Structures are given as C-alpha cells and as structure tokens.
C-alpha cells in the first residue's frame, strides 16, 4: 500500500514538472515580456516553484483557479476583474 502511495506522489510530481516545463517553453518562445497564469489552486504554487526565476518574472498575474472550462470572455474577465496575485 505504501508503494502505491509513493508511486502516486511521484507521478504527480513528474506531471507538475512536465506542466511547468511546457509553460516555460511557451513563455520563452512567445517573445512576450508579460504573461498571465491560471492553474488549479492545488497545483498553482507547485508549478511556480518549478519555473525558473526569469520565467516567473514574466508572469504578472496569477490566478489559483481552474479555468479550463470557461469561455473566452469569462477567461478574460477573470484576469481583468479578479484580484489576481501579482507576482
């Protein structure tokens, strides 16, 4: 049972690293100096912890929310109107 628990934890850690690496590549290749990030509150800080400081410095608004199923207008409204964490 402990091995199953450890496997799940390690699997989650690897997924967080993969997500962070993908975000890093997107931000670095974008050419933008500023970007916004939204991720479920359970993984938001973990993602930020995995990102290099140079990438984190480009994230100007951070929402610890799951916005994967919201429409385009609501997504923009969430960032423009919410009290986003300023990094």
Walk me through the topology:
Layout lengths: L1 H29 L4 E4 L5 H7 L2 H4 L2 E5 L8 H10 L6
Parallel strand pairs: 1-2
Describe this structure in words.
- This protein has 87 residues and is mainly alpha-helical.
- It has one domain.
- It contains four helices and two strands.
- Strands 1-2 form a two-stranded parallel ribbon.
- Helix 1 packs across helix 2.
- The longest helix has 29 residues, at 2-30.
- The model has no long low-confidence stretch (mean pLDDT 92).
The CA-CA distance between the termini, in Å, is 39 Å
As a whole number of angstroms, the C-alpha radius of gyration is 15 Å
Estimate nothing, just give the exact number of structural domains.
Answer: 1
Alpha-beta content class: mainly alpha
Q: Which runs of at least 5 residues are low in confidence (pLDDT < 50)?
A: none
Q: Helical percent range?
A: 55-70%
Tell me the β content: 5-15%
Largest sheet: 2 strands, parallel
Q: Count the DSSP helices.
A: 4
What's the rounded overall pLDDT mean? 92
Number of strands: 2
One letter per element, helices H and strands E, the order comes to: HEHHEH
**Which overall shape is indicated by the principal axes computed on the Cα atoms?**
globular
Strand order of the largest sheet: 1-2
Characteristic key phrases:
87 residues; mainly alpha; two-stranded parallel ribbon; 2 strands; 57% helix
């Amino acid at each position: 049972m402990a091995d199953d628990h450890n496997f799940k934890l390690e699997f989650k850690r690897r997924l967080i690293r993969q997500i962070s690496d993908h975000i890093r590549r997107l931000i670095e290749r974008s050419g933008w100096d500023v970007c916004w990030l939204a991720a479920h509150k359970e993984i938001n800080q973990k993602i930020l912890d995995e990102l290099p400081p140079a990438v984190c410095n480009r994230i100007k608004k951070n929402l610890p929310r799951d916005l994967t199923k919201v429409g385009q207008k609501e997504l923009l409204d969430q960032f423009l109107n919410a009290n986003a964490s300023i990094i």
